[in-house]
Amino acid sequence: MTLEDKLGPNGDAFYNTLMNTHEGLTDAQSHALNARLVLILANEIGDLQKLTALLMAAKGV
Amino acid sequence: MAYDYAPFPYSPPPGLTAPEPRHPVVIVGAGPIGLAMAIDLAQHGVASVVLDDNNVVSVGSRAICWAKRTLEIFDRLGIGERMLAKGVTWKIGRNFHGDKQVYAFDLLPEPGHKYPAFINLQQYYVEQYLAERTRDFPDLIDLRFLNKVTAHTDHGDHVTLDIATPDGHYTLTTDYYIACDGAGSATRKRMDLPFEGQTFEEHFLIVDVEMETSPFGNHDTPERWFWFNPPFHNGQSALLHKQPDNIYRIDLQLGPDTDPKLEATEEKVLPRIKAIVGDTPFRLDWMSVYKFRCAKLDRFVHNRVIFVGDSAHVVSPFGARGGNGGIQDVDNLGWKIAAVLNGQAPEKLIESYNTERVHGSAENILNSARATNFMTPKSPIEALFRNEVLSLAADHPFARKLINSGRLSQPCDLSSSPLSTAGDAPIAPGFPMMDAPLDGPDGPTWLTTAVQGHFTLMTASTMPLPAIKGIHRIGINQQADYPCFASAGGHAETRYGTDRIYLLRPDGHVCAVFDTADPAAIKAARDRALGVTI
């Protein structure tokens, strides 16, 4: 699976917002935030087949 | 071979012996921005005196990346072709993570433009070319080296300056004082203006080395190599790219806990260079250790004192927005000062320089701060995300787009400017014109060459362009009693469409578009762009 860009010109702005969201958190708090974020984004995607493929892509398989 | 820093001659200024008449413009600082400002004004018929406390060009390469839009502006100022001929047009970029190449990209130039996306050329060459170009205007540009401004006073409708020379002090009076005196601007300090923003704690080492053998392997293609966590320089970032004369620029991130004085020594620098280039023989040309910040003035126009370039705004070097941003300031201000001094526009037009360039520099600061944040993660979580973006980038194009080692300087969008008349077109009002190849009565030329420097009506449609006093006209694929050109390769029609008339400002930004040749509407848009009706 190859993931093409969908953020377009907003990539840098998104990345910056993501970093700002983590600012000031402890490692444990950041870890928890990331877990919540994965769950929220998974729900937004809402397609099990797609989610399974994305999980494999993240794992590098 | 090392650059020959020939000093500029000093001669005692007339003001030492008798009071000088009031000058329309005094420019403080003869760096690339001050010199470009003087040339731009001279091309609009405005005389200026340029004062500099020094008498040589930039020591060290400093600003080296000149973007396409900047080159088009330099073309208008008369040194673009010389810069292109001397500069290195780089082609291939490679990003590494550790010793692994994450990806490479080919910066193939888009066809149909006179200038490439950018070139590398040392600042001292640009200053030399500009200084030589000023000699074409002996009656309009008065360059005075070893003239140090020690004080200035704004009197409402003019400014007085106290100046120290090797032969003593004198005073000048001017309508406008343009401060091009750089990041450490003495003008700004005298006025006690706040210069605030983000300071980055990282130290960077910049080194220029001269090498006969290219470090880019067995080929002569100029490349740009960027490493995250380079194997030769643990835990930091590194950048290598080529300048003319076999000079290579190396940037090394040194970390926050660095003693800059200790690092800027041959003893410390030589092993770092050898770690990159191996046994290739090289000569150390210049080095500097620095921290940087992103900061700007709240306002660039302070009545009759106007800040241009680094005196108004500084950025981190990633994305090449310092020199390029400054040249865009010059491009924006030159025609406005000239229009006001020549009586074509009200004084309030100058205020639009403030509005437009404060906006432009905020955009530059945003982009370079983001690049710097990506390159220098502030916390373990930022480092984690950065490293995982890099590991996803090998397989996934989306992650490559997130890697930020500097976004190339793009001209800024002035659609929200009070000078722009809203409209809809392939190149909308507020955006700078795009180049296109043309064939004219004198042979092949370029659209940017044909139109810059004046208000110009331009179209690739069949609509005849009306004659309006003060507005030049250019027809593409037309036959008329104004200059007409044939489009070469169809680029002009593709970029501008065939059903619009464009009104371009003297700095090449579109200020209005029309779908009919309505002289009243065109004149109204021009008056708006001159600040007459805003």
Radius of gyration of chain A: 13 Å
The largest contact between protein chains, plus residue counts on each side, is: A-B, 19 and 22 residues
Q: CA-to-CA gap between the ends of chain B? A: 54 Å
User: How widely separated are the two ends of chain A?
Assistant: 9 Å
Largest sheet of chain A: none
Low-confidence stretches of chain A: none
Number of helices of chain A: 3
pLDDT < 50 stretches of chain B: none
- Tell me the helix content of chain A: over 70%
Query: Strand-residue fraction of chain A?
Result: under 5%
Shape of chain B: globular
Oligomer: heterodimer
**Can you tell me the CATH superfamily of the domain at 14-87 and 115-195 and 295-367 in chain B?**
FAD/NAD(P)-binding domain
SSE sequence of chain A, one letter per element: HHH
Overall pLDDT metric of chain A: 95
SS content category of chain A: mainly alpha
Largest beta sheet of chain B, briefly?
Answer: 8 strands, mixed
Gross CATH architecture of the domain at 14-87 and 115-195 and 295-367 in chain B: 3-Layer(bba) Sandwich
What does this entry look like structurally?
The complex is a heterodimer of chains A (61) and B (534). With 61 residues, chain A is mostly helical. Helix content of chain A is 70%, strand content 0%. The model of chain A has no long low-confidence stretch (mean pLDDT 95). Among the domains of chain B are: 14-87 and 115-195 and 295-367, FAD/NAD(P)-binding domain; 437-529, 3-Layer(aba) Sandwich (Glutaredoxin). In chain B, 28% of the residues lie in helices and 27% in strands. In chain B, strands 1, 2, 8, 9, 10, 11, 19 and 20 form an eight-stranded mixed beta sheet that branches. Chain B has a seven-stranded mixed beta sheet with strand order 6-5-14-15-16-13-17, with helices on both faces. In chain B, helix 2 (68-77) packs across helix 3 (80-86). At the A-B interface, helix 1 of A face helix 9, helix 10 and helix 11 of B.
